Fold each of these.
Amino acid sequence: MDEKKPWGGRFQEETDKFFEDFSESVSFDYKLALYEVKASLAYAQALTEIKILSDSEYKLIYKGLKEIEDEIKKGVFIFRKEYEDVHMNIEKALFEKIGEVAYKLHTGRSRNEQVVTDLRLFLIDKAEELKWSLKNLMKTIIDKAEEYYGIIIPGFTHLQHAQPVLFSHWIMAYYEMMRLHLQRLEDYEKRLKLCPLGSSAFAGCGFNLNRKKIAKNLGFNEPTRNSVFAVSSRDFILELAFILSLIMLDLSRWCEELIIWMSQEFDFIDLPDRYCTGSSLMPQKKNPDGAELIRGKSSIAVGDLIKLMVLIKGLPLSYNRDLQEDKPPIFESLDTVINSIKMMALMIQGLKIKKENIEKYLNKGYLLATELADYLVTKGIPFRKAHYITGQIVLYAEKRGKKLEKLTLEEFQRFSNVIEEDVYKWLTIENAIKRREIFGGTGFKSVKKEIDKAKKEIGYEN
Ligand code: ARG
C-alpha cells in the first residue's frame, strides 16, 4: 500500500491537478515542520505506552523522525505540494525511510488535532520571541528616559500646547504600554498552553492515551478539556492577532509622533541617517522612513486580525477546511510585528533630542496657565472661577504678546485681588514639574522612581 492520498480507498478518480494546487497548504505550513516532528515523537511514545506500537516499532519511528528533523534543520528536506500539507509530507517521508511501520503512527490520530497542536507549539515559541523583543524595546526606552532625564518638553493634548512635562515621563508612557503588552502575552500563554493531542478528528481518541503525559512532554500546561473544542477553536490565534494589532497601533501612534517631531515645524528630534532616506529629486530631504513604514505596516497586523475574525465567523463545529486559511495571516502578522518592534528599538536607540529647540517652544502656548489657576485655588478661589479668571488673564496676555510671568502684579490684580508677589514663584516651568510628585505624575523624583522601578522589574542593569 502506497497510495498518494491518505483517503484514497474511498475514491475512484484522482484528485484534479488544479484543485491539488488550490488546496495545498504546505507552501506555508512547512513552517510547522519541526513542531510536527516533535508532536509526532510524543504521540509515538504515548502509543507505545499503551502497546499499540512495540518497542522496536517505536525505535524505528523515533529514528526516522529524528532523521527527518535533522533534514528540516539543515534545510534539505523536500516539501511536495502533491502531499498537500506538512503533516502528510512528514508521514510520507517517514514511510520512505522506514516503510509501513510509519503508517502505524497515525493510529487514532487526525490532522485536525495535529494542526492545532503544531500551531500551538509554534506560537508558544513565537510568544517567547515577542516577549523578548518587547523587553528589548523596554530597555531601550529606559535608556532614553535616563539619557535625557531632566529635559522638559511641552506636553500636548489635541496636539496643542498643554502643560510642561519631563521628556522621560513622556517616553515612559510607551514603556507602560509595552509593559502591559508583555503582561497580556503572559496571560495569553495560559490559554495557549493547552494540548489538543488525543482529541483525534473531534470525538476523542479511541485508544486510551495518557493525554496528561503527552501534554507535559510537549511543554503544555494541560490537555484541552473538550475534543470538539480542541479541533474547532482558533481563539488562540485570534487572541494573539489582537495583541499583535494592539502593539502595532501603539507603535504606529508613536511613529506618528516621531514623524511630527522631526518635521521642520517642530524640530524637536533627529533620527539617525541610517534609518532615514533621501529623495531622488530633492537633494535636501531626509525622510523618517523607518517610522513611516512601521506606521504603514500596522495596517498588516490589523488587516490580518480582520481576516481571522471573518474566517471563523459562521463556521459550524467542528473542523472545517476553511480553518486552513488561519495560518498565512498569523504568520504574516508575527513576522511584521516582531520586525517592527526591532526597528522601533533601533530608531529609539539612535533618537536625539534637540534641547535648544524644545526650550524655545516652552515659551509658547501658555503652558503655565494651569499653575496660575491652581495658585488662585490656594488663595481660596473655587476652581471653576479660578479657571475663568485665568482664561481672562491668558486672553489679556495673548493680545499683548506677553507671557504670563511677564505680566506686572498690577496687571494681575486687575483680574483678581488675591494675587500677590508670590505668584511669580508659581509661574516657572520647573515649578510646574516639581508640583507633580504625585504617584504616576511628571515630578522629577516621581519619574526617577518610576524609571528605577522599571529597571528592576525587567531585571535591567546598565
Ligand atoms: N492542512 C490542514 C489545515 O491546515 C490540516 C488539517 C486537515 N484536515 C482535514 N480534515 N482535511 O487545516
Amino acid sequence: MTAFDPAASRAHLVEAGQAHLVEHAATLSETEAERFLAHAAAQPWAALAKAAQSESSSPATSLRPPQGLTWKRQQAQGGVRGRLAEMGQAFLAGGRVATILLAGGQGTRLGHPGPKGTYVFGPEPDRTLFKILGERIAAAGRRAGRAVPYYVLVSPATEAATREAFEEAPSWGLDPAQIHFVVQGQLPAVDDAGRGLLAAPGELAMAPDGHGGLWPALVNAGVLDELAAAGIDALTTFQVDNPLGRPLDPVMLGWMVERKAQIVSKGVAKATPDERVGVLARDISGRHRIVEYTELPDDVPESVNLGSIAVHAFGVRFLKDLFDGGYEMPLHRAHKKVAHLDAAGALVKPTEPNAWKLERFLFDIFPEADRFEVHEVKRTWEFAPVKNAEGTDSPATSRLLVDAEVRRWHTERKLPLPDPVSLHPLEVDGAEAYL
Ligand code: UTP
C-alpha cells in the first residue's frame, strides 16, 4: 500500500473542485487533517458532481407489459401454484437459496429514532419489524429442514443498533450462525456545484448510497463468491418496511427454477393508474426494468400496470458474471435537507432541501438480465408498506392490511384467529406455513 501523501491529496481535491475542503483541513490539527484529507480524497467527486447536475432521465417510451406469471393464470390453472410451490420448496430444502434484508436506509419519513426494523409494529410490545420478518425466515428454514442463510444489509447509520436488535434473533427462531451483516457504503452529500458539505469539523456530510449499494457491498465483502462456493443459486431481496413481505415464497422460487430466470420480481396490480409506485415494464429494446412513477410517459398503455413491491430473486451466477465483468452502477440524485456547517463554521439546519444525496438503485441491473420474469402476486396478501409517520403507507394503514391478511389466512384454513390478531409464522401440520 502506498503511504498517504497529504500534498497529493490536497492537489487532487483542488482539481476535483473541492478547494474549500483543503482550506477546512488547514483549520484542523495535523492528525485530524490527515484523516480528513485521506477520507475526502478517496471520494468519487467527478461522478458525484456529474450525477448532482444531471436532470433525471427522460420519460421511458414505448413501454409494454412485462413477461411472467400473471395472477390470472395462477387462478385459471388451479394446479400451477401448487406445482411451483413444490419446486420452490425443493429448491429451499436443497440449500440453494439465501436471502438479504435491506435495512440500511435512514427511514427519514417515518421519523422513528433508530433503524426502521426496531419500530414496534405490534400488537404485542415486542413485535418489531425485525422480529416479524425474522420469524418468517426462521419458519421457512424449519419447513425446508435447513436454515436459510440470512444476510442483513446495514449502513454506518444503522449497523450498531441493528446488530444489537439481532441479539434477540434466537428468540425469533434464528440460529446466530445463519445471520450475516453486510455494511453498505456511503457517499458525500453535495451542493448544486458538486461540492462536499461538512457535517462537523473534520467530517464530511455522508449518506448511505441507496438500496443499490447492496451490490457493491456484496461484491466488496466477497459475499457473491461465498454464495457460489456454498452452492447457493438464488439470492432473494426484501425490504424492512413491509411486514407482509414474503421473500422465500416457494411459488416465486419455483417459477424462477421453471423459467431458468436470472431475475424474478414480484409485482402487484396498481391500486390506481396514478399510484406513486415504480412500474415493471419492458422497454423499447425488450429489456425489463422498473420505471419510476416520475418517469412514466403520459401515454403509457393501461396494460402496463404492475407495481413493484421490492421483493426480487436474483441468480447468483448472473450477479457474479455481471459484477466480475466490471458492471458499474449509475448514481441518481435526490434533493434533501442536509444539515451542514456554513463558511463561518456554524451549523445550519435547513428547512428546505439544500443538497443532493446520491443513490444507487438496486433494480438498475434489471435490464442486464436476458431471462427476466415477473411473478404477479395479490397485493393484499403481500404488501403493507410502512413509509410515512401518518397518512398513506403509514403504520396505521399497514396494521389494517396486516390484520386483514391474518384474518384471511386463518379463515381460509378454518383455523381459530390468534388473539390479538397478529402475524405469527403459523405452521400447519408442517405442510404449510405463512412464508
Ligand atoms: P426507502 O427508499 O423507503 O428509504 O428504502 P428509507 O431510508 O427506508 O426511508 P426514507 O426515504 O428516508 O423515508 C427502501 C428500503 O431500502 C433500504 C431501506 O432500509 C428499506 O428497506 N435502503 C434504503 C437501504 O438498505 N439502503 C439505503 O441506502 C436506502
